[in-house]
Design a protein that fits this description.
Layout (H helix, E strand, L loop, with lengths): L17 E5 L2 E11 L2 E7 L5 E8 L3 E7 L13 E5 L6 E9 L10 E8 L7
Antiparallel strand pairs: 1-2, 2-5, 3-4, 5-8, 6-7, 7-8
């Protein structure tokens, strides 16, 4: 794959961010952070020696900063869905917007902070 416009990658570094589409609006998402917690259930014998364990996946949550393309760009809404590609080009994951902030700046582009959660169920058509 050629280098993105305006860049020359000397060494194959993984860098950049992702363009996400939320409710038909494209945003550049920066500072994407995804947290995938778990709960661990441990079993020990009568002497306290580990005997077994179960790891249960938790709810996947995250945050990102979205660049607004212009003053007319629509803000995302709570419940809107979008897709992010996992680090290293892994599978795409569906998320739901769970929180939307607002940010205004005088000498820089306007950005919006969002929080999101991994979508667990897909609604019936």
């Amino acid at each position: 794959m050629p280098d993105p416009a305006g860049t020359k990658n000397d060494g194959g570094l993984v860098f950049g961010s992702q363009v996400v589409t939320i409710d038909s609006v494209a945003y550049v998402a920066e500072n994407i952070s995804i947290d995938a917690p778990s709960t661990i259930i441990e079993q020990k014998n009568e002497f306290g020696v580990p005997k077994g364990q179960v790891i249960v996946e938790g709810f996947v949550t995250g945050t990102a900063t979205l660049q607004l393309a212009s003053s007319a760009t629509a803000m995302p809404s709570i419940g809107d869905t979008f897709t992010l590609v996992q680090v290293g080009g892994g599978a795409a994951v569906n998320f739901l917007v769970s929180q939307v902030g607002q940010s205004f700046s005088q000498d820089a582009e306007t950005k919006v902070n969002i929080s999101f959660r991994k979508r667990i169920n897909t609604p019936a058509p």
